């Protein structure tokens, strides 16, 4: 799938892509985030500390991630992801995104999230997201 983002210098293009993804998630819009994902996209949640009681699940492909997002939007009347910091590695084309998430499903909850985001070589598509979680 071709992404028709404006011509932006590569480091800024990566940040622009990730911010577009977060903006779409915060707007409860699956179209914008999915348009920024590569066809072979993979999403996984990894525990912050490896322990026997922390379960991991297999990575989600683009189609299953779409279902995952739709499910989150159903559970959380409002879901927002606001980046607090980003660190870019020009060598690998990856970004580490620290964000605060807010959600409401009867009770308002907030949590910090860390996303490891790998982008395509041109910075226009997200190839992989690993979310580091404490649960």
UniProtKB/TrEMBL annotation:
Gene3D superfamilies named in the record = 3.10.450.50
Q: Which SUPFAM superfamilies match?
A: NTF2-like
Q: What is this protein called?
A: SnoaL-like domain-containing protein
User: What organism, scientifically named, is this protein from?
Assistant: Staphylotrichum longicolle
**Top-down, what is the taxonomic lineage of the species of origin?**
Eukaryota, Fungi, Dikarya, Ascomycota, Pezizomycotina
